[in-house]
Write a structure and sequence with these properties.
This protein is an all-alpha fold and 97 residues long. The chain has helices at residues 3-8, 21-30, 34-41, 47-60, 63-72, 82-95. The chain has one domain (21-95). The protein is built from 6 helices and no strands.
């Protein structure tokens, strides 16, 4: 799936269940449901799940918690805008499909 195709999924009321959980989490975030996105991300037991978790806490403004999760993901807090970080996460997970 390409980035533009992923963006077309926002016309739906729920993400496609065939999407990896990482992209489902990011989909819910973009749809404005931070809680649902967070619920999914916190249950992904990989460094990639930790990366999404970190991004979500950064977006929330909980920088201490975000930095904790960035560390668990082996990453530094991003200097990108929240929107740019979301895009980079989506592009990363799309490239893994």
């Amino acid at each position: 799936m390409k980035y533009d195709e992923f963006l077309e999924l926002f016309n739906k009321s729920e993400p496609d269940k065939v999407l990896p959980v990482e992209l489902q989490s990011l989909w819910w975030d973009k749809k404005g449901n931070w809680e649902k996105s967070h619920d999914i991300a916190q249950d992904i037991p990989t460094f990639e799940g930790h990366w999404i978790h970190a991004y979500l806490h950064r977006k929330e403004g909980d920088i201490w918690n975000a930095d904790y999760w960035y560390g668990k993901a082996g990453k530094e807090r991003s200097d990108l805008s929240i929107e740019e970080e979301w895009e980079s996460l989506v592009e990363y997970f799309l490239s893994k499909e």
